[in-house]
UniProtKB/TrEMBL annotation:
EC number: 2.1.1.198
Source species of the chain: Candidatus Taylorbacteria bacterium RIFCSPHIGHO2_02_FULL_43_32b
Name of this protein: Ribosomal RNA small subunit methyltransferase I
Similarity remark: Belongs to the methyltransferase superfamily. RsmI family.
Domain Tetrapyrrole methylase: residue ranges: 4-205
Amino acid sequence: MSGKLYVVATPIGNLEDITLRALRILGEVDIVYCEDTREGKKLLSHFDIHKPLDSFHARSSLSKIEKIVEDLKMGKNLAVISDAGTPAVSDPGFVLISEVRRSLPEAEIYAVPGPSALTAAISIAGMATNTFVFYGFLPHKKGRETILKEIMANNKASVFYESSHRILKTLQSLAVLLEPTRRIAIARELTKIYEELKRGSAKDLLDYYTNNQDKVRGEFVVIVSGAD
Ligand code: SAM
């Protein structure tokens, strides 16, 4: 009988956000595949879990996926974690899971749900997000303009991840493209000491971050309200 594959969400900052089930599963599996084994080791050691770790990340070769499939065939139970949040949400996981489903259909794959910056941000944004479009990270160059225009025209909320290096540039683009009535919420450093949620027009937020460079740090989720 093949082993089980658990896709385990981990905290996005505050370690208290790990779930009881995640702790149990991470303590029970034979191997934990981590996006970065150093990060995985830090997390597991914090909870006094000591398990063999191996790496699985965006650049992992096909042979790594084959090794994971072999582990499952041998009956090993495995967990996959990313550096933070839910695997396969703008993180590695999709290719592996799709390949396990294809080549070992009898393998059981379980979600161990928990934190994600996406759901954390929309939960506190106070915006109509019953339906929304999630873009992950916006492309840096090719296709960026097209997506920004799509966000401009979208009557659903648009949500995307952004880095501290690009947040000002993105707000500049949105300030040019969007009507001043379009509301934006920016969630920064969710669950961490400097957690902050700012709301306003693109111009308001551009002014805020331009005047508060110390806040142009950390990790960001941007939510743009739908067009009326
Ligand atoms: N899989 C993760 C999840 O479920 O949230 C997302 C991984 S993606 C590589 C990392 C991006 O998520 C960051 O660049 C940032 O945009 C967002 N993010 C992660 N942690 C965050 C946090 N604590 N606060 C705000 N955004 C965060």
